[in-house]
Amino acid sequence: MKELSLNNQTIKIDAGELVSYLVDGHQYIHQKGSPGWRSSDAEMFPIIGPTNETDFMVQVSRGNAIQDQHGLLRELEYEIVFDNEVSATYKKVYKAGTVVKNSKFPEKSTKSMLMWPFGFEFQKKYELKEDGLYITFDVSGERDMPFMLGYHPAFKLHSESPIIVSNGNEITLGEVLEVGDRAFHIAECESVILKDEKSLQISTQGFGHFMLWTPVPTMMCIEPITFYPYEVAQRDLYKGFQYLDTDKKEFKVCIKPIN
């Protein structure tokens, strides 16, 4: 377990996963073991969304890739690259065509193994600054590799009537619960505010959209995404790809307490 601290802020990282963000003793992150979700943060890569209706196949230029919901990155282990008192960088490296064990099999999937026909390196950097927590994702790999990226943090809710504010609109907890597993889509948006007992601003660069998901009233997943997968049929999921046209693409998330 890695701990970073700066003034009144402390985060804890477990094998690359953000498991705690305390500011003046207030916990902002959903705690493992609490109702709602077994994790506290994750990345969705190289695809976002379900693939069960297409027998877990996703169409790419090199044929069909075998991908379960939200991709295979979460099945890989992070290794630490660098750390000090206020920052830590982790990476995952994947060799093209490597077969990876699917943790969803057999309970939630018929595929025991997953595969992606492109090699890549994925870096995740945490950095505490005076005004909040900054998380940077760097994607590098084979030129023209197709991919989608989503960040999937879960925030602990402390009040009965939290509100998400985006583009001047208010979204209630009830609205998110009603949408269910499809997740509530916030299109063309780079910043949202979670108004709870204590509020947060989640700002992004490079993603472009958000989706909101929760099955319980005690947490809220506020997920920056490059593509909302339920806009298309699963067979057309490839339409959401962007392509690696440089040595590296960078995506940023800032989690900033605002009261």
From TrEMBL:
Monomer. The keyword Calcium applies. Gene3D superfamilies: 2.70.98.10. GO terms for molecular function: carbohydrate binding; isomerase activity. It comes from the Bacteria. Keywords: Calcium. One of its GO terms (biological process) is carbohydrate metabolic process. Its cofactor is Ca(2+). This is Aldose 1-epimerase. Coiled coil: none annotated. Transmembrane segments: none annotated.
